[in-house]
Structures are given as C-alpha cells and as structure tokens.
C-alpha cells in the first residue's frame, strides 16, 4: 500500500505554505497525503490578512476520522496557533506509533505571528517531546529557547537547547545565516551537517512547511532520520531554486520542480 502521511496544520489560501504545500510535497514524493486543518488563513503573496482557528473538537474529530480508519505511517505538524490546540494535538500524538515531524511554526515568511506567546510553554512541555524530528528555524529557536544564533558555530548550542525539551532529533535550519544554506541535524550524540548552495531567489514562501513534509514523507517510506532529512534537503533545495513569482510579493517554492526538470 502507498505510504500514508498526515499533516496537522493551517490552510494557506494562496497555496504556497501550510496544508496546501504539505499535500503538494507529499504527492511529489510519492506518498498519500491526508490533512487535519487547524486554522484557516486569508493569505497571499503579500502576507496574512486574517486567521481563524478551528475548535479543538473539530481538530480531534478530523484526526480520529483519518487515523482510526486509514492509518498513518508518519505525521507532520505545522501551525498550531494556541495553547489549547497544541495541547489537543500533543495528546493525540502521544498515542500514535508512527514518526512525528514537528515544525514549530511561529512567524510567517512575511513576519506575521502564527503562534500565540501563551502557547510557547505548551509547545516546549507537550509538543516537542512527541517529535521524532523537530525542525525550528533560527527565529523559532530564539522564541522557544532564548538562544540567538548569529553564526554557524552557534548551531550546536541551539540544537542542545531544543533537544532539552525532548525531541529525539532536531534539525536547526540555518537558512537565515549568510553564505551557504547550512542546517544541523543531531540527536545529541551524532551530528549531520547539511549544506546546499544559496540560490538568489526571493520566492521562498512555504520553505519550512515543505521541508518538514518532505522529511515526514521519507520517514513514511521507511528511511532512517538522517537519510530522510538528507533527501528532504535535496528536494527543498530544488524547490527553492525553482521558486516562482506569484502575485505582488513573495512567491512560493515550486513543489513540482522535479516533474519539470
């Protein structure tokens, strides 16, 4: 049977990030994507104009509907905007026997807040311990741990600070640093430094969602964590390179770049 991957995240009406990016990534990587919508956003290439959180019972019902009937080989979480949603999703994930990729979404590409400050402690205490892999960017590391990364040498400190909250592995995304796009994957014992050339392309909307979904897809296909992250990094690098203009602002990465290569 085709591997099945569930995304628990918000909807991006512009189609570049969130649930829409997740499902496109899953299709491109040969798995069956399913979704639990946690919030609806009015969003385009210029930013987020509005966001409406779904009730916890709606999130729980979607999750149970999918998992109890269809089953999953991996789960990816994205936008969980409130403490109540984080707690609901963490409770559900604690009972699942499948790898979980937690993308602790805090701020959109345009700087719009997507996570309430009151939810940070729930992310630290309840959500991160469920993660097979957590994938924070540098802003999210600072938000969660207080560690500010200014150079590549700071990535180890950032990783240790996130691992202290309980994920099995952490991928610290160093894309905001100058030079090559370098990420650090570690479980606290072994380290994998992942480098890719930086492409001069401003159209990078959905990068984080796409990477986390790609990791979940590879895990669902049976890859180990280092192999899954390496494959996902290759895929998202190609998607960034092929990112295209859409609307008047920042366009999305191209989830179907391999089909057009």
TrEMBL record:
Keyword presence, Transferase: yes
Q: Which reaction does it catalyse?
A: 4-amino-5-hydroxymethyl-2-methylpyrimidine + ATP = 4-amino-2-methyl-5-(phosphooxymethyl)pyrimidine + ADP + H(+); 4-amino-2-methyl-5-(phosphooxymethyl)pyrimidine + ATP = 4-amino-2-methyl-5-(diphosphooxymethyl)pyrimidine + ADP
Pathway(s) this gene product operates in, as recorded in its UniProt entry: Cofactor biosynthesis; thiamine diphosphate biosynthesis; 4-amino-2-methyl-5-diphosphomethylpyrimidine from 5-amino-1-(5-phospho-D-ribosyl)imidazole: step 3/3
The domain of life is: Bacteria
Question: Entry's Pfam families?
Answer: Phos_pyr_kin (PF08543)
Any single GO BP term: thiamine biosynthetic process
Q: Where is the Pyridoxamine kinase/Phosphomethylpyrimidine kinase domain?
A: 12-254
Enzyme Commission number, as recorded: 2.7.1.49, 2.7.4.7
One cellular component term (GO) for this entry is: cytosol
Q: Name one GO molecular function term.
A: hydroxymethylpyrimidine kinase activity
Q: Which UniProt keywords apply?
A: ATP-binding, Kinase, Nucleotide-binding, Thiamine biosynthesis, Transferase
- The main enzyme category here is transferase
Briefly state the protein's biological role: Catalyzes the phosphorylation of hydroxymethylpyrimidine phosphate (HMP-P) to HMP-PP, and of HMP to HMP-P.
Protein name per UniProt:
Bifunctional hydroxymethylpyrimidine kinase/phosphomethylpyrimidine kinase
Species: Streptomyces roseirectus
Q: Upper lineage ranks?
A: Bacteria, Bacillati, Actinomycetota, Actinomycetes, Kitasatosporales
Please state the gene responsible for encoding this protein.
thiD
